[in-house]
């Protein structure tokens, strides 16, 4: 009897945690992509469960399609991230073609990883995925989301699955707002081959600055402004976070995180940085730039995501 009760409690707790995981995923997607629809939540979810939409047998046609995307897409049009986990479990990762355009990955590296990911495993059946999605929808419906075309999208997904299909496109609103250009990579391949190259490209540094006391207030305003403008307007700037030491108010520390060398070089040419640099040269008594090696780059995304969700 006690064993049965324990089993029931375990299953109940597991169910609650699973629902919380779905809710966290959905709310994060809405916070990141305010223009999305239920179709886009579904797409990330089936990519997480099923992987790429079809097996790849013709490398030449897949490469030609990628070449066309690279040719017709500018960096300004692309989403700011290099990689984003799919769904609630991240079995597969969306890797942006931004990684190629910023010379983080070669075209061949991304293409090979994509093809092997698409062909490496036996896919779950559509019926298996249908049951999984229906289970997810129980939690999503309880969230009472105010998404556009919610009922229409829900019915469309149900029809698609009832026809023995599962793959759909992003919604028109999502495509217009975010211009998604990525390839789906299996997590094991991503962690082994792609992720180290992305982490290696990142620039993390701490700027140690001492300010002349008579210019302190003016400098603080300038530092705060350049940090805010950089993060707001530059996809390649993850963080510029100025701080003032408690023990010595004239000592400033700035945490700087850039996605890549390309992003950093682009930052140095922006109007807001040049205004800051030229306007504060006479205010700065000393400056040291100390490059850092992240010990746990994986946690970085969770830190910023957590801050976003807690707003």
Structural features, described:
The chain has 311 residues and is α+β, with helices and mostly antiparallel strands. It has two domains: 2-199, no CATH class; 203-293, Alpha-Beta Plaits, CATH 3.30.70. The chain is built from 13 helices and seven strands. The protein has helices spanning 2-32, 38-50, 59-72, 98-101, 107-119, 126-142, 150-162, 172-178, 187-201, 216-233, 261-267, 271-280, 298-309; strands spanning 83-85, 92-96, 182-186, 203-211, 237-244, 251-258, 284-292. The strands form two sheets. The chain has a four-stranded antiparallel beta sheet with strand order 5-6-4-7, with helices on one face. A three-stranded antiparallel beta sheet has the order 1-2-3. A hairpin with a 6-residue loop joins strand 5 (237-244) and strand 6. Helix 10 (216-233) runs antiparallel to helix 12 (271-280).
Q: How would you summarize this macromolecular structure in one to three sentences?
A:
The protein is of the alpha+beta class and 311 residues long.
